[in-house]
Amino acid sequence: MSVLPLVFTSGWASGINAYAVVLLLGIFGATGLTDEVPETLQRPEILITVGVLFLFEAVADKIPYVDSVWDSVHTVVRPAAGAWVGALLAGQSGSVSDLWAGVLGGSTALASHTVKAGTRMAINTSPEPFSNFVMSTAEDLGVAGILTFAMFHPEAAAVIAAVLLFSGLVVVYFLVSRIRRFMRRRAQRREERRLAERVGQPPDRTGPVHRD
Q1: Is residue 132 a part of any domain in this protein?
Q2: From the CA atom positions of the chain, what is the Rg in Å?
Q3: Range of the domain at 128
Q4: Helical spans, DSSP H, in 124-153
Q5: Do the domain assignments include residue 200?
Q6: Which residue in 52, 165, 185, 59 sits closest to 118, CA to CA?
Q7: Would you say residue 13 lies in a domain?
Q8: For residue 12, what are the contacts with CB-CB under 8 A and spacing of at least 6?
């Protein structure tokens, strides 16, 4: 069962940047840093492919609105990558079923991808472009740091990943609620303008007057 913390952490990281996860795990295995990484992830063609895709993501992920389009495309890719990596790690260790490890890695990746995509949608509503760059850089460094930490302390890394995942889901829940309220208010104002234009009167911008 010792491989499950690493499966969980790699699934969480895959939901944020799947290419970075495969690239890092492949490098860790190829350099002999760990024996937990299967040879499939260490193959040169795999490392070259994910390395190129990682560079594309590193650029796209830092551009406002382009990052959201990139996220929507990877709604399937990231959970599939998390499931694939989890199944490979389980098969390498032989301590747990490949199927259950794949389910754990894929579902965790889907949850963290939801957090990432939801957060980016909220950030894209801000007028300045720098928050995308800062958030993307923080995510890349977080994935690299926690995944490296998981090579030496898998249980502790899994706890950190779980805390970050839960906190992110809570933040996204409140962000989505605020965005929905904002959209409802904006739709209501548009409707008020249309009604005012029909009767030839300016829209009421002060709100209703309450009289005793």
Answers
A1: yes
A2: 22
A3: 4-175
A4: 130-152
A5: no
A6: 165
A7: yes
A8: 108, 109, 111, 112, 146, 161, 162, 164, 165
